[in-house]
């Protein structure tokens, strides 16, 4: 049986303007909302200098996978650029440190796959803020292992 939510969801996929004007109904997963978000991120990224973006990229590369041959392409430049625009360089570095504290994102998940790319860290505001918060949390397990007094 169709519900009102099913009907509304179908309307929004048929008419993307409804979804763009009401993102709270369907979250940021609707394609039209994501395209708008990407355009806004690109505009912000253009306002950030290349040296700042390169600084954060090199920090990510050094912290996450030092032997990686990753290159700074347009997509990564855009993701890092908007994050620097909104949060600053130090907060972006904190977000990178935060993902290192997430066992799930570092491969301790059912698929043993690492989810620590620039795209994951700087996907949207929620992701950046989540990883910044993780960076600020103390790692009690690490303190226990490395503290000889315990």
Record the SSE blueprint:
Elements: H1 4-14, H2 16-21, H3 23-26, H4 31-45, H5 50-64, H6 74-87, H7 89-100, H8 118-121, H9 125-136, H10 140-146
Overview of the molecule:
The chain has 150 residues and is an all-alpha fold. The protein is built from ten helices and no strands. The chain has two domains: 1-45, no CATH class; 50-150, no CATH class. Helix 6 packs across helix 7 (89-100). The longest helix has 15 residues, at 31-45. The chain is globular, with a radius of gyration of 19 Å. The protein starts with a helix and ends with a helix. The relative contact order is 0.10. The mean pLDDT is 80.
Radius of gyration: 19 Å
Q: Sheet bearing the most strands, described? A: none
Structural class: mainly alpha
Alpha plus pi helix count: 10
The number of distinct β-strands equals: 0
Strand residue percentage: under 5%
| Helix percentage range | 55-70%
Q: Determine the N-to-C terminus distance.
A: 60 Å
Structure keywords:
mainly alpha
Summed up:
This protein has ten helices and no strands. With 150 residues, it is mainly alpha-helical.
